[in-house]
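On clarity, I found the account of how folds are encoded harder to follow than it need be. For illustration, here is how one protein appears when written out as sequence plus structure tokens.
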Amino acid sequence: MSTISGTITDLEANFIPEVWLDWVYERITETNNFFRSGILANDPILGNQLLSRGLFVTIPHTAHIDTTIEPQDWNNKHDITTSGMDSFTENDVKMTDAQSFGNSDYDDMVTGAKTLAQITSQFTDYWSVVDTQRLLQVLNATFLNTDIATAKSFGVGSEKDFAALDFVKAMARMGDVASGKPTQMAVNSGTYNYLVAQNLIDFLQPSEGAMPIGTYNGLTIVQDDQVPLTKDGKTCAYLYGSGAVNYGVATPINGVTTDRDNLKQGGISAITHKRVTTMHVAGTAADMTIEDDPTKWKSDLKDGTKALYKAADDVRKIGIIKYGFTIDKGFVVPGVNTTDTATTTPSGTTPSGTTATK
């Protein structure tokens, strides 16, 4: 009985020896700049617990002293009364992932392609795309919470043209909290080019010969086309400081394997990765009253309709702001920067823009 199921790489159908040159090994075009920008910090609590038992953990907290209590008069007429400390719990959810890619011995022999080496070298790219998508899913679910959206977002749901005054109103959502002040803003490249056209971006030259760095109102601009941008020009900017999102990843026992089936299709190999991760905005916690089954967490994030996170304690501790706005639709390019999936493609091509083949 075969131990490997699914579809493996099949290059033979396109192999024409008379005109065949050396293989060109393609890489993904997603930059994952948002995920790589420094927004992530190692989860200080759950990071070391990812491979422990269970799919979520409960973390007890003692609350800070209640500063609303008035000081008492000190005299010899009245007793001094004592106040206690409150407590609360925070839940964090683990998410488990697996993926496998493979090829056949015969295919490698006929074509000369180094498929397994290509698969191995690109698994890091693959997980970076997954994590960028999940980062945006987590942010979406976080800002579905009414309390968080009220305190930490501006213009979301009532988007209008990008405006400097509205940007400042969004920045005001940080209050006077010193730690975690926004230093970067993540936007779709459509927004970036719209701001360039409006002459709103300042460029810094860090050193001679280096690429200039674009900034807006002192924030370094991070371009990532996975930041939502609709065909109608509706989008957002995430304003954040370093470590605004807690993240952890761990590889379990047998988490990276190469499997062999010497009989199926003349002999095939598969490289498989398994991992356990966690991700949430610092200052928030999983709201188990919304979804108490950790195995449904990933599908709920993808669906994007549930407020899966709540403020863990004080909403002021959340160090990321969401500013919603619109840009000129002329900067929306189907197949390049819009995240709307329905796009028109020329006749005879696939949605990726390549000629359709068998």
In short: The helical segments are 33-36, 105-111, 115-142, 146-152, 164-171, 189-197, 297-303. Residues 233 and 329 are 5 Å apart (CA to CA). DSSP finds seven helices and 16 strands in the chain.
